[in-house]
Protein backbone atom coordinates (compact mmCIF):
# COMPACT_ATOMS: atom_id res chain seq x y z
CA UNK A 1 0.00 0.00 0.00
CA UNK A 2 1.20 3.50 -0.76
CA UNK A 3 0.05 6.76 0.76
CA UNK A 4 -1.91 7.42 -2.45
CA UNK A 5 -4.21 4.44 -2.05
CA UNK A 6 -7.79 4.72 -0.81
CA UNK A 7 -8.14 1.70 1.51
CA UNK A 8 -11.59 0.37 2.32
CA UNK A 9 -11.56 1.63 5.91
CA UNK A 10 -10.86 5.18 4.75
CA UNK A 11 -13.70 5.08 2.24
CA UNK A 12 -16.16 3.69 4.80
CA UNK A 13 -15.09 6.20 7.44
CA UNK A 14 -15.49 9.03 4.94
CA UNK A 15 -19.15 8.30 4.24
CA UNK A 16 -20.00 7.55 7.88
CA UNK A 17 -18.35 10.85 8.77
CA UNK A 18 -20.70 12.65 6.37
CA UNK A 19 -23.68 11.08 8.15
CA UNK A 20 -22.54 11.89 11.69
CA UNK A 21 -21.35 15.42 10.92
CA UNK A 22 -24.62 16.35 9.24
CA UNK A 23 -26.62 14.90 12.15
CA UNK A 24 -24.46 16.87 14.57
CA UNK A 25 -24.92 20.09 12.60
CA UNK A 26 -28.72 19.85 12.35
CA UNK A 27 -29.18 18.84 16.00
CA UNK A 28 -26.74 21.58 17.02
CA UNK A 29 -28.92 24.12 15.23
CA UNK A 30 -31.91 22.79 17.20
CA UNK A 31 -29.99 23.35 20.44
CA UNK A 32 -29.02 26.86 19.35
CA UNK A 33 -32.69 27.63 18.61
CA UNK A 34 -33.63 27.36 22.26
CA UNK A 35 -31.44 30.37 23.11
CA UNK A 36 -30.44 31.91 19.76
CA UNK A 37 -27.97 34.40 21.18
CA UNK A 38 -24.22 34.25 21.69
CA UNK A 39 -22.10 36.07 24.28
CA UNK A 40 -18.50 36.68 25.27
CA UNK A 41 -19.37 37.01 28.99
CA UNK A 42 -20.55 34.32 31.41
CA UNK A 43 -23.34 36.47 32.83
CA UNK A 44 -25.23 36.25 29.51
CA UNK A 45 -26.71 39.67 30.23
CA UNK A 46 -29.63 40.53 27.93
CA UNK A 47 -28.56 43.00 25.28
CA UNK A 48 -24.85 42.06 25.39
CA UNK A 49 -25.01 39.27 22.82
CA UNK A 50 -22.54 39.56 19.93
CA UNK A 51 -24.76 37.48 17.64
CA UNK A 52 -28.49 36.76 17.61
CA UNK A 53 -30.56 34.51 15.38
CA UNK A 54 -34.01 35.70 16.34
CA UNK A 55 -36.26 38.65 15.65
CA UNK A 56 -38.05 38.38 18.97
CA UNK A 57 -38.03 41.44 21.22
CA UNK A 58 -38.65 40.70 24.88
CA UNK A 59 -41.22 42.82 26.78
CA UNK A 60 -39.97 45.39 29.27
CA UNK A 61 -43.23 45.79 31.20
CA UNK A 62 -43.66 42.25 32.52
CA UNK A 63 -41.68 39.24 33.70
CA UNK A 64 -40.46 36.98 30.93
CA UNK A 65 -38.30 33.90 31.13
CA UNK A 66 -35.84 32.33 28.74
CA UNK A 67 -38.47 29.93 27.43
CA UNK A 68 -40.12 32.99 25.88
CA UNK A 69 -36.91 33.63 23.91
CA UNK A 70 -36.94 30.20 22.28
CA UNK A 71 -37.18 30.05 18.49
CA UNK A 72 -39.03 27.53 16.34
CA UNK A 73 -36.70 26.53 13.49
CA UNK A 74 -37.96 24.50 10.54
CA UNK A 75 -37.10 20.75 10.40
CA UNK A 76 -35.33 21.30 7.09
CA UNK A 77 -32.43 22.91 8.95
CA UNK A 78 -32.89 21.71 12.56
CA UNK A 79 -33.19 18.18 13.90
CA UNK A 80 -36.00 17.64 14.59
CA UNK A 81 -37.17 21.28 14.42
CA UNK A 82 -40.22 22.97 15.92
CA UNK A 83 -38.61 23.92 19.25
CA UNK A 84 -37.82 20.40 20.45
CA UNK A 85 -34.71 20.90 22.56
CA UNK A 86 -35.05 17.51 24.25
CA UNK A 87 -34.98 15.71 20.91
CA UNK A 88 -32.17 17.93 19.66
CA UNK A 89 -30.04 17.06 22.68
CA UNK A 90 -30.64 13.33 22.26
CA UNK A 91 -29.62 13.40 18.59
CA UNK A 92 -26.67 15.71 19.18
CA UNK A 93 -25.06 13.68 21.95
CA UNK A 94 -25.84 10.35 20.29
CA UNK A 95 -24.25 11.56 17.06
CA UNK A 96 -21.26 13.03 18.91
CA UNK A 97 -20.61 9.67 20.56
CA UNK A 98 -20.74 7.94 17.18
CA UNK A 99 -18.55 10.61 15.60
CA UNK A 100 -15.91 10.41 18.33
CA UNK A 101 -15.76 6.60 18.14
CA UNK A 102 -15.50 6.84 14.35
CA UNK A 103 -12.80 9.49 14.69
CA UNK A 104 -10.78 7.35 17.08
CA UNK A 105 -10.80 4.47 14.60
CA UNK A 106 -9.87 6.92 11.83
CA UNK A 107 -6.88 8.35 13.73
CA UNK A 108 -5.61 4.90 14.73
CA UNK A 109 -5.80 3.57 11.18
CA UNK A 110 -4.49 6.81 9.73
CA UNK A 111 -1.22 6.50 11.62
CA UNK A 112 -1.06 2.68 11.63
CA UNK A 113 -1.20 2.52 7.82
CA UNK A 114 0.85 5.62 7.01
CA UNK A 115 -2.13 7.36 5.46
CA UNK A 116 -1.45 10.43 7.60
CA UNK A 117 1.14 11.46 5.00
CA UNK A 118 -1.78 12.22 2.69
CA UNK A 119 -2.86 15.12 4.89
CA UNK A 120 0.10 16.19 7.01
CA UNK A 121 1.95 19.28 5.66
CA UNK A 122 5.52 18.03 5.89
CA UNK A 123 7.25 21.24 4.69
CA UNK A 124 6.82 24.97 5.37
CA UNK A 125 7.03 25.49 1.62
CA UNK A 126 3.43 24.32 1.37
CA UNK A 127 2.18 27.68 2.68
CA UNK A 128 3.47 29.84 -0.23
CA UNK A 129 2.34 27.08 -2.57
CA UNK A 130 -1.15 27.21 -1.02
CA UNK A 131 -1.18 30.99 -1.55
CA UNK A 132 -0.33 30.48 -5.21
CA UNK A 133 -3.12 27.90 -5.44
CA UNK A 134 -5.59 30.39 -3.95
CA UNK A 135 -4.60 32.98 -6.55
CA UNK A 136 -5.07 30.36 -9.25
CA UNK A 137 -8.54 29.43 -7.96
CA UNK A 138 -9.52 33.11 -7.84
CA UNK A 139 -8.56 33.35 -11.50
CA UNK A 140 -11.03 30.51 -12.18
CA UNK A 141 -8.33 27.98 -12.99
CA UNK A 142 -7.28 24.74 -11.29
CA UNK A 143 -3.79 24.64 -9.72
CA UNK A 144 -1.39 21.72 -10.20
CA UNK A 145 -1.42 18.83 -7.76
CA UNK A 146 1.49 18.28 -5.41
CA UNK A 147 4.07 15.88 -6.91
CA UNK A 148 2.92 12.30 -6.41
CA UNK A 149 -0.12 13.32 -4.37
CA UNK A 150 -3.88 13.54 -5.07
CA UNK A 151 -4.25 17.05 -3.58
CA UNK A 152 -2.98 20.54 -4.30
CA UNK A 153 -1.27 22.49 -1.51
CA UNK A 154 -4.35 24.45 -0.53
CA UNK A 155 -6.48 21.30 -0.31
CA UNK A 156 -3.87 19.53 1.76
CA UNK A 157 -3.76 22.38 4.27
CA UNK A 158 -7.56 22.44 4.44
CA UNK A 159 -7.77 18.71 5.14
CA UNK A 160 -5.00 18.93 7.74
CA UNK A 161 -6.81 21.80 9.44
CA UNK A 162 -10.12 19.94 9.59
CA UNK A 163 -8.69 16.57 10.67
CA UNK A 164 -6.03 17.68 13.13
CA UNK A 165 -7.34 21.05 14.36
CA UNK A 166 -11.03 21.74 13.74
CA UNK A 167 -12.43 18.33 14.75
CA UNK A 168 -10.54 18.20 18.09
CA UNK A 169 -11.39 21.88 18.63
CA UNK A 170 -15.12 21.12 18.39
CA UNK A 171 -14.84 18.23 20.84
CA UNK A 172 -12.85 20.28 23.35
CA UNK A 173 -15.11 23.35 23.20
CA UNK A 174 -18.15 21.08 23.45
CA UNK A 175 -16.73 19.48 26.60
CA UNK A 176 -16.19 22.94 28.11
CA UNK A 177 -19.98 23.42 28.02
CA UNK A 178 -20.64 20.43 30.28
CA UNK A 179 -21.70 21.51 33.81
CA UNK A 180 -20.03 18.41 35.26
CA UNK A 181 -16.69 19.20 33.61
CA UNK A 182 -16.99 22.90 34.41
CA UNK A 183 -17.80 22.07 38.04
CA UNK A 184 -14.89 19.67 38.48
CA UNK A 185 -12.35 21.53 36.34
CA UNK A 186 -13.17 25.27 36.44
CA UNK A 187 -9.68 26.00 35.12
CA UNK A 188 -10.56 24.15 31.91
CA UNK A 189 -13.47 26.46 31.21
CA UNK A 190 -11.33 29.51 32.06
CA UNK A 191 -8.75 28.21 29.58
CA UNK A 192 -11.27 28.89 26.81
CA UNK A 193 -12.11 32.33 28.18
CA UNK A 194 -15.25 31.17 30.00
CA UNK A 195 -18.34 29.11 29.31
CA UNK A 196 -19.85 31.60 26.86
CA UNK A 197 -16.53 31.93 25.04
CA UNK A 198 -16.55 28.14 24.63
CA UNK A 199 -20.13 28.22 23.34
CA UNK A 200 -19.33 31.01 20.89
CA UNK A 201 -16.15 29.30 19.70
CA UNK A 202 -18.11 26.07 19.28
CA UNK A 203 -20.55 27.93 17.05
CA UNK A 204 -17.71 29.43 15.00
CA UNK A 205 -16.35 25.90 14.62
CA UNK A 206 -19.75 24.89 13.26
CA UNK A 207 -19.55 27.73 10.73
CA UNK A 208 -16.06 26.57 9.74
CA UNK A 209 -17.37 23.06 9.13
CA UNK A 210 -20.18 24.43 6.97
CA UNK A 211 -17.73 26.52 4.94
CA UNK A 212 -15.46 23.51 4.51
CA UNK A 213 -18.36 21.33 3.34
CA UNK A 214 -19.45 23.89 0.73
CA UNK A 215 -15.90 24.36 -0.59
CA UNK A 216 -15.20 20.62 -0.46
CA UNK A 217 -18.26 19.80 -2.55
CA UNK A 218 -17.35 22.58 -4.97
CA UNK A 219 -13.83 21.22 -5.39
CA UNK A 220 -15.12 17.70 -5.98
CA UNK A 221 -17.43 19.08 -8.67
CA UNK A 222 -14.75 21.17 -10.39
CA UNK A 223 -11.98 18.56 -10.19
CA UNK A 224 -14.26 15.80 -11.45
CA UNK A 225 -17.20 14.36 -9.57
CA UNK A 226 -16.97 10.96 -11.26
CA UNK A 227 -13.25 10.19 -10.81
CA UNK A 228 -13.04 11.53 -7.25
CA UNK A 229 -16.13 9.65 -6.13
CA UNK A 230 -14.83 6.53 -7.85
CA UNK A 231 -11.72 6.81 -5.70
CA UNK A 232 -13.86 7.25 -2.56
CA UNK A 233 -16.18 4.35 -3.46
CA UNK A 234 -14.05 1.81 -5.34
CA UNK A 235 -10.57 2.95 -4.34
CA UNK A 236 -9.59 3.75 -7.93
CA UNK A 237 -10.63 6.05 -10.78
CA UNK A 238 -12.32 3.27 -12.75
CA UNK A 239 -16.09 3.01 -13.28
CA UNK A 240 -16.60 6.76 -13.01
CA UNK A 241 -20.14 6.65 -14.40
CA UNK A 242 -21.21 4.00 -11.90
CA UNK A 243 -19.44 5.91 -9.15
CA UNK A 244 -21.44 9.03 -9.98
CA UNK A 245 -24.73 7.18 -9.62
CA UNK A 246 -23.57 5.39 -6.46
CA UNK A 247 -22.39 8.64 -4.86
CA UNK A 248 -25.77 10.21 -5.50
CA UNK A 249 -27.37 7.08 -4.08
CA UNK A 250 -25.23 7.31 -0.92
CA UNK A 251 -26.13 10.98 -0.49
CA UNK A 252 -29.80 10.11 -1.01
CA UNK A 253 -29.49 7.44 1.69
CA UNK A 254 -27.98 9.94 4.10
CA UNK A 255 -30.82 12.36 3.36
CA UNK A 256 -33.29 9.51 3.93
CA UNK A 257 -31.73 8.86 7.35
CA UNK A 258 -32.22 12.54 8.23
CA UNK A 259 -35.84 12.44 7.06
CA UNK A 260 -36.49 9.26 9.06
CA UNK A 261 -34.80 10.72 12.15
CA UNK A 262 -36.92 13.86 11.89
CA UNK A 263 -40.19 11.98 11.41
CA UNK A 264 -39.37 9.53 14.21
CA UNK A 265 -38.56 12.39 16.57
CA UNK A 266 -41.68 14.42 15.82
CA UNK A 267 -44.08 11.48 15.79
CA UNK A 268 -42.65 9.24 18.51
CA UNK A 269 -40.51 11.43 20.77
CA UNK A 270 -40.86 9.12 23.76
CA UNK A 271 -39.30 6.30 21.74
CA UNK A 272 -36.37 8.53 20.72
CA UNK A 273 -35.96 9.65 24.32
CA UNK A 274 -35.82 6.03 25.48
CA UNK A 275 -33.61 4.55 22.73
CA UNK A 276 -31.05 7.32 22.18
CA UNK A 277 -31.19 8.34 25.84
CA UNK A 278 -30.07 4.85 26.90
CA UNK A 279 -26.89 5.19 24.84
CA UNK A 280 -26.14 8.74 25.91
CA UNK A 281 -26.91 8.04 29.57
CA UNK A 282 -24.51 5.09 29.63
CA UNK A 283 -21.66 7.26 28.36
CA UNK A 284 -22.64 10.05 30.73
CA UNK A 285 -22.68 7.80 33.79
CA UNK A 286 -19.26 6.35 32.95
CA UNK A 287 -17.49 9.58 32.02
CA UNK A 288 -19.25 12.40 33.88
CA UNK A 289 -21.14 11.03 36.88
CA UNK A 290 -17.94 10.43 38.94
CA UNK A 291 -17.02 14.14 38.73
CA UNK A 292 -17.53 16.30 41.84
CA UNK A 293 -17.98 20.05 41.91
CA UNK A 294 -14.94 22.06 43.05
CA UNK A 295 -16.01 25.59 42.25
CA UNK A 296 -15.15 28.73 44.16
CA UNK A 297 -15.45 31.77 41.94
CA UNK A 298 -14.29 35.09 43.41
CA UNK A 299 -16.98 37.48 44.61
CA UNK A 300 -16.06 39.89 41.83
CA UNK A 301 -17.24 37.33 39.27
CA UNK A 302 -20.83 37.22 40.57
CA UNK A 303 -23.21 38.16 37.78
CA UNK A 304 -25.15 41.37 38.30
CA UNK A 305 -28.23 39.76 36.75
CA UNK A 306 -29.40 36.16 36.78
CA UNK A 307 -31.84 35.27 34.02
CA UNK A 308 -35.26 33.89 34.94
CA UNK A 309 -36.32 30.44 33.78
CA UNK A 310 -39.82 29.36 34.77
CA UNK A 311 -42.70 31.50 36.00
CA UNK A 312 -43.22 31.74 39.81
CA UNK A 313 -46.35 30.20 41.37
CA UNK A 314 -49.38 32.46 40.99
CA UNK A 315 -51.61 30.78 43.58
CA UNK A 316 -53.19 32.87 46.33
CA UNK A 317 -51.61 30.59 48.92
CA UNK A 318 -48.12 31.24 47.59
CA UNK A 319 -48.68 34.98 47.30
CA UNK A 320 -49.87 35.17 50.91
CA UNK A 321 -46.81 33.23 52.08
CA UNK A 322 -44.53 35.52 50.08
CA UNK A 323 -46.07 38.65 51.60
CA UNK A 324 -45.38 37.25 55.07
CA UNK A 325 -41.76 36.24 54.26
CA UNK A 326 -42.76 32.57 54.08
CA UNK A 327 -43.22 32.16 57.82
CA UNK A 328 -46.14 29.80 57.09
CA UNK A 329 -44.23 27.75 54.52
CA UNK A 330 -43.45 24.15 55.44
CA UNK A 331 -41.16 21.59 53.86
CA UNK A 332 -42.31 17.98 54.18
CA UNK A 333 -39.59 15.36 53.83
CA UNK A 334 -40.70 11.74 53.75
CA UNK A 335 -41.20 8.68 51.62
CA UNK A 336 -38.89 5.73 52.14
CA UNK A 337 -37.26 7.12 55.27
CA UNK A 338 -37.07 6.17 58.94
CA UNK A 339 -37.79 9.63 60.29
CA UNK A 340 -40.10 11.82 58.17
CA UNK A 341 -40.01 15.48 59.18
CA UNK A 342 -41.76 18.76 58.52
CA UNK A 343 -39.59 21.88 58.68
CA UNK A 344 -40.12 25.62 58.46
CA UNK A 345 -37.39 27.99 57.30
CA UNK A 346 -36.01 28.55 60.80
CA UNK A 347 -35.93 24.81 61.41
CA UNK A 348 -34.15 24.25 58.12
CA UNK A 349 -31.54 26.88 58.98
CA UNK A 350 -31.00 25.27 62.39
CA UNK A 351 -30.08 21.90 60.89
CA UNK A 352 -26.51 22.85 60.03
CA UNK A 353 -24.17 25.76 59.62
CA UNK A 354 -25.02 27.80 56.56
CA UNK A 355 -22.93 26.79 53.55
CA UNK A 356 -22.23 29.13 50.65
CA UNK A 357 -20.84 28.33 47.22
CA UNK A 358 -19.99 30.71 44.39
CA UNK A 359 -20.65 28.62 41.31
CA UNK A 360 -21.63 28.81 37.66
CA UNK A 361 -25.22 28.07 36.72
CA UNK A 362 -25.65 26.23 33.40
CA UNK A 363 -29.08 26.52 31.83
CA UNK A 364 -30.02 23.71 29.46
CA UNK A 365 -30.75 26.38 26.86
CA UNK A 366 -27.16 27.61 26.84
CA UNK A 367 -26.98 30.77 28.96
CA UNK A 368 -24.95 30.94 32.17
CA UNK A 369 -24.40 33.12 35.21
CA UNK A 370 -22.27 33.04 38.33
CA UNK A 371 -23.91 33.37 41.73
CA UNK A 372 -23.46 32.66 45.41
CA UNK A 373 -25.99 30.18 46.77
CA UNK A 374 -26.37 29.60 50.51
CA UNK A 375 -28.32 27.02 52.44
CA UNK A 376 -28.19 23.61 54.06
CA UNK A 377 -26.47 20.63 52.42
CA UNK A 378 -29.03 18.19 51.08
CA UNK A 379 -26.96 15.43 52.67
CA UNK A 380 -27.73 16.95 56.10
CA UNK A 381 -31.47 16.61 55.46
CA UNK A 382 -30.95 13.06 54.20
CA UNK A 383 -29.01 12.17 57.35
CA UNK A 384 -31.86 13.57 59.44
CA UNK A 385 -34.58 11.48 57.81
CA UNK A 386 -32.38 8.40 57.24
CA UNK A 387 -33.44 6.93 53.85
CA UNK A 388 -34.30 3.23 53.84
CA UNK A 389 -32.05 0.82 51.88
CA UNK A 390 -34.61 0.49 49.08
CA UNK A 391 -34.61 4.25 48.35
CA UNK A 392 -32.89 4.95 45.02
CA UNK A 393 -34.14 8.39 44.01
CA UNK A 394 -35.23 11.72 45.44
CA UNK A 395 -38.34 13.47 44.14
CA UNK A 396 -38.73 17.24 44.58
CA UNK A 397 -42.30 18.53 44.42
CA UNK A 398 -42.83 22.24 43.88
CA UNK A 399 -45.55 24.84 44.23
CA UNK A 400 -45.44 25.63 40.50
CA UNK A 401 -48.43 24.43 38.51
CA UNK A 402 -47.84 24.61 34.77
CA UNK A 403 -51.57 24.63 33.99
CA UNK A 404 -51.76 27.93 35.84
CA UNK A 405 -48.28 29.46 35.99
CA UNK A 406 -46.74 28.66 32.62
CA UNK A 407 -49.38 27.16 30.31
CA UNK A 408 -48.03 25.82 27.04
CA UNK A 409 -48.79 23.33 24.33
CA UNK A 410 -46.43 20.86 26.01
CA UNK A 411 -48.71 20.10 28.94
CA UNK A 412 -49.55 21.14 32.47
CA UNK A 413 -49.51 19.76 35.96
CA UNK A 414 -47.34 20.18 39.03
CA UNK A 415 -43.67 20.75 38.33
CA UNK A 416 -41.41 18.11 39.86
CA UNK A 417 -37.94 16.68 39.37
CA UNK A 418 -36.36 13.33 40.23
CA UNK A 419 -32.65 12.76 40.74
CA UNK A 420 -30.52 9.77 41.67
CA UNK A 421 -29.88 9.30 45.38
CA UNK A 422 -26.11 9.30 44.87
CA UNK A 423 -26.25 12.98 43.87
CA UNK A 424 -27.48 13.89 47.37
CA UNK A 425 -23.99 13.47 48.79
CA UNK A 426 -22.17 15.26 45.98
CA UNK A 427 -20.09 18.24 47.14
CA UNK A 428 -21.87 21.61 46.87
CA UNK A 429 -25.34 20.03 46.61
CA UNK A 430 -27.57 22.42 48.55
CA UNK A 431 -31.09 23.28 49.50
CA UNK A 432 -30.59 27.00 48.96
CA UNK A 433 -32.60 29.68 50.79
CA UNK A 434 -30.28 32.59 49.98
CA UNK A 435 -28.80 34.00 46.77
CA UNK A 436 -25.89 36.43 46.70
CA UNK A 437 -26.12 36.99 50.45
CA UNK A 438 -29.84 37.86 50.49
CA UNK A 439 -33.06 35.84 50.86
CA UNK A 440 -33.80 33.85 47.74
CA UNK A 441 -35.78 36.02 45.27
CA UNK A 442 -39.22 34.84 44.26
CA UNK A 443 -38.32 34.57 40.57
CA UNK A 444 -35.40 32.29 41.45
CA UNK A 445 -37.25 29.85 43.67
CA UNK A 446 -38.14 31.37 47.06
CA UNK A 447 -38.33 30.13 49.67
CA UNK A 448 -36.26 27.07 48.74
CA UNK A 449 -34.59 25.65 45.66
CA UNK A 450 -32.20 22.86 44.84
CA UNK A 451 -28.60 23.31 43.72
CA UNK A 452 -26.76 20.35 42.14
CA UNK A 453 -23.72 21.85 40.47
CA UNK A 454 -22.85 18.94 38.16
CA UNK A 455 -26.31 19.11 36.57
CA UNK A 456 -28.00 21.45 34.09
CA UNK A 457 -30.18 24.13 35.67
CA UNK A 458 -33.67 22.71 35.00
CA UNK A 459 -32.94 19.81 37.38
CA UNK A 460 -32.56 22.30 40.24
CA UNK A 461 -36.21 22.52 41.22
CA UNK A 462 -37.47 25.87 42.54
CA UNK A 463 -40.32 26.73 44.95
CA UNK A 464 -39.89 23.36 46.69
CA UNK A 465 -42.58 22.26 49.15
CA UNK A 466 -41.99 18.52 49.48
CA UNK A 467 -39.15 16.01 49.17
CA UNK A 468 -39.82 12.29 48.82
CA UNK A 469 -37.29 9.46 48.89
CA UNK A 470 -38.51 6.78 46.47
CA UNK A 471 -37.41 3.53 44.85
CA UNK A 472 -39.17 4.08 41.51
CA UNK A 473 -40.47 7.07 39.58
CA UNK A 474 -42.38 5.32 36.80
CA UNK A 475 -45.68 6.08 38.52
CA UNK A 476 -44.98 9.81 38.96
CA UNK A 477 -46.24 12.08 36.20
CA UNK A 478 -45.62 10.28 32.94
CA UNK A 479 -42.77 8.31 34.45
CA UNK A 480 -39.81 9.96 32.72
CA UNK A 481 -38.25 11.52 35.83
CA UNK A 482 -39.46 15.12 35.82
CA UNK A 483 -41.92 17.56 34.31
CA UNK A 484 -39.61 18.55 31.46
CA UNK A 485 -38.63 14.92 30.92
CA UNK A 486 -42.32 14.03 30.73
CA UNK A 487 -43.50 16.85 28.52
CA UNK A 488 -40.56 18.05 26.42
CA UNK A 489 -38.53 14.83 26.48
CA UNK A 490 -35.38 16.10 28.17
CA UNK A 491 -32.89 13.60 29.55
CA UNK A 492 -33.23 12.82 33.28
CA UNK A 493 -29.49 12.97 33.93
CA UNK A 494 -27.91 16.12 32.59
CA UNK A 495 -24.22 16.34 33.34
CA UNK A 496 -23.84 17.76 29.84
UniProtKB/TrEMBL annotation:
This is Cytochrome b/b6 domain-containing protein. One of its GO terms (cellular component) is plasma membrane. The lineage of its organism: Bacteria, Bacillati, Actinomycetota, Actinomycetes, Mycobacteriales. The chain crosses the membrane at residues 91-112, 157-182, 203-225, 245-266. Residues 6-235 form the Cytochrome b561 bacterial/Ni-hydrogenase domain. It is found in: Cell membrane. Residues 325-472 form the Oxidoreductase molybdopterin-binding domain. GO terms for molecular function: electron transfer activity. Gene3D superfamilies: Oxidoreductase, molybdopterin-binding domain, Transmembrane di-heme cytochromes, Chain C. It comes from the Bacteria. It holds the Pfam family Ni_hydr_CYTB. GO terms for biological process: respiratory electron transport chain. It comes from Mycobacterium paragordonae. Keywords: Cell membrane, Membrane, Transmembrane, Transmembrane helix. InterPro entries: Cyt_b561_bac/Ni-Hgenase (IPR011577), Di-haem_cyt_TM (IPR016174), OxRdtase_Mopterin-bd_dom (IPR000572), OxRdtase_Mopterin-bd_sf (IPR036374). It is a multi-pass membrane protein.
Amino acid sequence: MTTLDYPAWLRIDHWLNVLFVTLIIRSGIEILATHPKLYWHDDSKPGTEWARFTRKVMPQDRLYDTLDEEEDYHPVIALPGHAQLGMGRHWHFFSVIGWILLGLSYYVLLFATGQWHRYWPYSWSIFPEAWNDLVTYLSFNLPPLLPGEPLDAMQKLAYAGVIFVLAPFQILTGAAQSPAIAARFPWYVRMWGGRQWARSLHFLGLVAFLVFIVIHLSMVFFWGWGPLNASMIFGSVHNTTLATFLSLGILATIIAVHVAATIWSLRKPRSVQRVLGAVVNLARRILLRPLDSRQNYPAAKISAQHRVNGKPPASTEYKVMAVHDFVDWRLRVGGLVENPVTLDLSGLRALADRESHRVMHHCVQGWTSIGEWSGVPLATVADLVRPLPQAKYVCFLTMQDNDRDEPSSHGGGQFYEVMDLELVHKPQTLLAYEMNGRPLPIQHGAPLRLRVETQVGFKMAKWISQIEFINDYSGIGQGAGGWREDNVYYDKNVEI
